[in-house]
Amino acid sequence: MKMDAVPYPGGRSVSLVQSGLRRMFEIVEAWLDRIFGPAWNPLYQLGALGFFYYWVVAISGIYVYVLFDTGTTEAYDSVQYMTVDQWYLGGVMRSLHRYASDGMILMMVVHMLREFALDRYRGARWFTWVTGTPILWLVFVAGISGYWMVWDQLAQYIAIASTEWFDWLGIFGESIARNFLAPHSLDDRFFTLLTFIHIVAPLLLLLVLWIHLQRVTKPRINPKRGLAAGTFLMLVALSFVKPAVSHPPADLAAVPGVLNLDWFYLSAYPLMDTFSYGAVWAFAAILSFMLFALPWLPPVRRPAAAVVDLDNCNGCERCANDCPFNAILMRPRSDTLPFEQEASVDASLCVACGICAGSCPTSTPFRRASDLIPGIDLPDRSLRVLRDRLEVAAAGLAGDARVIVFGCDHAARLDTLASNRIGTLSLPCIAALPPSFIDYVLSRDLADGVVITGCRDGECFNRYGVAWMEARMAGTRDPYLRPRVPRERILTAWAAGADRAALAKAIEGFRTRLAAQPASPPSPRTPRAKIDGTNTHA
Amino acid sequence: MLKVFRFLGQGVVYALIAVLLGFFADTPAYRHFDDDKAQLTLSVAHSGQHAGTCRRLTAKEIAALPPNMRKPLDCPRERLPVLVEVDLDGQTIVRESIPPSGLFGDGPSQIYENFVIPSGSHRLSARLRDSNRAQGFDYQRELEVEIAPRQRFVIEFRSETGGFRFPAAAGPRG
Ligand code: HEM
Ligand code: SF4
Ligand code: SF4
After folding, report:
1. What is the reported pTM?
2. DSSP state of A151
3. Using CA atoms, how far apart are residues A397 and A400, in angstroms rounded to an integer?
4. Between the CA of residue B39 and those of A121, A179, B147, B150, what are the distances in Å?
5. Residues ≥6 apart with Cβ < 8 Å to A418
6. Integer Cα distance of A290 and A136 in angstroms
7. Distance of alpha carbon A255 from alpha carbon B34, whole angstroms
8. Region of residue A334 (phi > 0: left; psi between -120 and 50: alpha; otherwise: beta)
9. Does residue A418 sit in helix, strand or coil?
10. To 5 degrees, how large is the angle CA A9–CA A14–CA A19?
């Protein structure tokens, strides 16, 4: 492979909408980092929060269901009973059921926007996005059928508008809106059907969520306990302050006048009134299609998947344990080497983050040039090229307090930081860097210090890159950064795109400290820079 | 100090989320229908008469049929379109010839339509033709009615119950 042909560092271009949204998220996240700390930052665990709301909805739903009666008059009466007579439990459960459902919409929409803004929906990651889109429909079906079951005036409005909306398609032999012409045309069986839908949609949702997470390793489906507790307390408080109530009972002989819509679930209904059923169908169809097809609008050039070099693979499983996208499978040895297993990459799942190369024990720059072939590596961003670039960058440094900055394509950009004192190298993920490279820089005196940067703590483009890198440096996850490496010559400073200036400042501070340092014996702690916006638990 | 700031900050964030959830769960109120209007809904699902004339089968033809399918008449499946007309205060608001539904044109003709009308007293007349007569109607009904604000007045046609059916409460006087 010719070195010059390698796009290194690289990264893909994102649209203006994306980068604008991303900037907004970064600003809000920085605030929430200060208030909650990275571990509890709600924006870093929206999917997990979505799950949490789901469980609150499910458990309160079971209670509400026990008190619920199906039937045209019984339904309303039973809901009134729990709301009024049993306000202290039934009423609270009903309110929790409602507000947690609303919270699910909120989490889901922000989660979706964020995955889009952070560009985590294309390339090999299309699957998680695409399987997310039916979730939207299912959540709406579940919520709308829930409002329908109460059989108050709001339910009546929804029932008639929804059935007329479906009738517009003309696919049912008989108009289903005709079921709601008058009380005599109403059928208890319709409520049974509705109850069935209201139970099946959430169950189906759970199934689709399970599929949604098939391609992410160790998905975070439970929020941190403190965040869960805070969220639950918030929901309970809201349920007491503003209990969920019904409208007057449905009356098919009258048209509801003023309605208190739940705008999270029912925003489409006023659109049906204002425009037409056809327009709302067209809108829903176009939106669904756009969302569905977004990963290919426009198509991205997918970077080449990681490749295993069997001669250098001893089957240690580290890469398979570290891959955040379930892309590596350990299988029985296919060659004659005396190991039991070998790694194999499913190219269709690989996002080319390089984390596997960073974890492979054979990825060490101390080997001779011809030898630096790790057991697993990215063809477009090979570690051998990284070492060559490192040597070029180091050769360009002069004076005292020279530093090499290793960073990530998806976090603060490094190119503007470069000078004759600072050499920068951007990787597809910071965990694509084998810790031995840090040792290499310092022991070969390629620089006086090393800066490790990447996405903000608690939030990594490649999901686990920051966590794995920290664990490797702390010596709690293979491959370890060797104890002999002087920790005071390493700075860890996580920094998102918005934190570039703060990163530059942190590096300057680090260089000042380096300049004041004599050649010193190793110390066990790595200094951490506190970057405005990110938060480090030093 | 930092702890206090964090604690308060989290409280503020949770409160904001609660306000967001609590507010948009039922606010702002939405006016779906004006108080001085009423709704007229027309719903017809009715099969027109057979389009072709039925032919009496000969005894020989009947005998040739499987026993469970024997019948004296052979009728074409296709139905005639149904003509529906509705007048409101002397003005025709619906005049539609509705083709039969179904792949073979053998299903009922269907119409379902909503109209917004001022509340108050109205004269309504509804007519339906399901035969191939050139003039006149096979069913018709007229009535003077006082329609209340936001009343949902349904004109329903069901041949099994003798044609047009107006809401019982309105008390048909026509
Ligand atoms: C209630 C609804 C949803 C829940 C509970 C949910 C849950 C999750 C969870 C737990 C993760 C893994 C997070 C991690 O550990 O890194 C995730 C990732 C993701 N979700 Fe969802 N999700 C929902 C809806 C959606 C929707 C509607 C979309 C988009 C249409 C979507 C798109 C994604 C994407 C693109 C990822 C990232 C995958 C990656 O990092 O490669 N999700 N979701
Ligand atoms: S980390 Fe390297 S040696 Fe270990 S299984 Fe993966 S490719 Fe093989
Ligand atoms: S580059 Fe390696 S760690 Fe990253 S997705 Fe591909 S196989 Fe997994």
Report:
1. 0.89
2. -
3. 9
4. 47, 17, 9, 7
5. A424
6. 13
7. 9
8. alpha
9. coil
10. 110
For the CA of A330, the closest atom of ligand 2 is 5
- Please give the order of strands across the beta sheet that includes A403-408: A422-427, A403-408, A449-452, A490-492
Task: Express each pLDDT in A366-404 by its tens digit.
Answer: 876 557 889 999 999 999 999 999 999 999 999 889 999
Distance CA A37, CA A35 (A): 6
Question: For residues B78 and B47, what is the distance between their CA atoms, to the nearest angstrom?
Answer: 10
Give domain A302-381's CATH number out of 3.30.70.20, 3.30.70.920, 3.30.1380.10, 3.40.50.720.
Answer: 3.30.70.20
Structure letter (DSSP) for residue A361: T
Q: Could you give the 3-state DSSP secondary structure of residue A44?
A: helix
Q: Please tell me whether residue A344 adopts helix, strand or coil conformation.
A: strand
DSSP A231-257: HHHHHHHHHHHS-----SBP-TTB---
Which member of A175, A244, A261 has the closest CB to residue B110? A175
Per-window interface: A 82-121 vs B, CB < 8 A: 98-99, 102-103, 106
Distance CA A60, CA A92 (A): 9
Q: Are the CB atoms for B113 and A277 separated by under 8 Å?
A: no
The domain segmentation of chain A, as residue ranges, is 1-8+384-538, 45-296, 302-381
CB A365 within 8 A of CB A440: yes
pLDDT exceeds cutoff 80 at A309: yes
> How many contacts (CB atoms, under 8 Å) link A and B?
121
Strand B91-98 and strand A422-427: the pairing is: unpaired
Atom of ligand 3 nearest to the CA of A376: 2
> Does the CB of B112 have a partner CB in chain A at under 8 Å?
yes
* CATH topology identical between A45-296 and A302-381: no
* Spatial contact of A161 and A176, defined as CB atoms under 8 Å apart: no
CA of A362 to the centre of ligand 2 (A): 8
Closest residue by Cα to residue A355 from A332, A383, A390, A329: A383
Task: Please write the tens of the pLDDT for every residue from A219-235.
Answer: 999 999 999 999 999 99
Residue at A365: amino acid letter: P
Instruction: Report the interhelical angle of A92-117 vs A16-36 (nearest 10°).
Output: 130
With beta carbons less than 8 A apart as the criterion, state whether B112 and B43 touch.
yes
Whether domain A45-296 has CATH 1.20.1730.10: no
Q: What is the pLDDT of residues A46-98, one digit of tens each?
A: 999 999 999 999 999 999 999 999 888 889 999 999 999 999 999 999 999 99
